[in-house]
Known about the structure:
This protein is an alpha+beta fold. The chain contains 11 helices and 14 strands.
Amino acid sequence: MGENTATAANLSQTKYKTEIITSQTAFQNIQGEWNHLLSQSLKKSFFLTWEWQFQWWKFYQKVGSEKSLYIVLIRDEFDKIQAILPMYKTHISGVLGKKLELLYLVGSGHESSEYLDAIVSSSADEQLYETLCECLQQADVDGVHFSDLRDDSVLLPLLQDWARQQGLHAEKQYWKTCPFIPLQGNYEDFIGSLSKNMRYNVRRRTRNLEKNHKVVFRKSETAEDAEKTVGVLYELHRKRWETKEGESKFDDPLREKFHAIIAAPLLDGGYLRFYILEVDDVPVATLYCFAYDGHVYYYQAGMEPELEKKSIGMVVMGKAIEASFEEGAHEYDFLRGLEDYKFRWTDKTRDTHILEIAFSKAAASHFGAQAKWRGMKKQIKKVIKK
Length: 386
């Protein structure tokens, strides 16, 4: 057992051994085992890598509500990890202000971590899933609030069935929509598949920019350059939002600090794809992306507003997609958001969901009240639209 781990008590007879990690030190010590399991797991996502999960926890554990780490490890008879469920506990106010303690997935609540899930071996059997579910009830909390779950995640169908069998109150709700591009063939084939207008604009705008200016498209290759580019990203992001109405949730000094900290570890792990478009030796656009297991995830962008008429956003996006083809990726994921520009590149989407399961009457009342309030808001919006 590692430092600050404990065996889950009162589990049914099983060949599996369960550990609960509650310390940052123990979390830090399982990097190799964690990433090895993820590489062979049923469902993979960059946001499940040890680097993203650990850095997120290290930075955000005391931001907002106080959180306590609760990572479930399930090992087989040979002491190999077969499942990881990365969670934390925190308190919220329920109905009539009653304090509830809930479990959340590490990565949720701060930043935009998509496709969270349990990390489970591809050879998992029914007993392993049963052990995983039993660990939740042994956590001594009022319930769970798991967000950013895909329809085809491990957790969503598993826990819905389990909650139904146990007679527990469960609420599933739509969360976000993520457009994505399947990368098949080559970049020219892909451009040829776009609408006639989009195809023409991508080629013409790129050609005109390169004809009239010195254009360099590159990606950060060193930790120093990556950290510097975080600053450029935020500078360009803020300049662009100054020309628009509303506020950007990404424009936050705390978030800027987080991304400056994680740039080097993500680059070292081979996950970072920080693309920079330079025009006449000046950075005018950046795309902040991650890559894992043949997927490239577009996370955020910064653009020079004075060059928007030259469609630098379209140009840099096209070059990033082309670079993804060149490295052999099979998907380019725009992640959450229904912005119009994303649908000029694709018509493919996937949804994510929130799943809430109540273990106490107080949690059931809270989740039920929240569901009713969401229904009321939908009805109000419909009336306003009419």
